[in-house]
Amino acid sequence: xxxxIHTNQAPKAVGPYSQAVETNGMLFISGQIPIDxxxxxxxxxxxxxxxxxxxxxxxxxLLEAGFDFRDVVKCTCLLSDMENFSAMNEVYxxxxxxxxxxxxxxxxxxxxxGVLVEIECIASK
Length: 125
Hints:
By secondary structure, the protein is α+β, with helices and mostly antiparallel strands. The chain has one domain: CATH 3.30.1330.40. It contains two helices and eight strands; from the N terminus they run βββββαβαββ. The strands form two sheets. It has a six-stranded mixed sheet with strand order 1-2-3-8-6-7, with helices on one face. Strand 6 (72-79), helix 2 (85-93) and strand 7 form a beta-alpha-beta unit.
């Protein structure tokens, strides 16, 4: 049986999807964008600030579900401009200091609300 995960410490979904779904010991976190849940707006700054907020949002969802970053096995990073890859990678890497998960990164034409980065991930217990 699947369990819907929701926390007020991460932004509300901007469409018809759940923040995350847990099933059979796996957690599927929907793509997170850099909305600060405390103010309900995209954080100010560039790619580093946006990536940090995205990772904080993911962390809040992981925590709500009883997981942490060590449980993450796969991430997909979407960037509005691949020129931001190195800066995104710098911030992203601080959340996975040992045994980082598998990952794919893509440049896309446009992301929701005009953000610079969106990251989704899968965790497993």
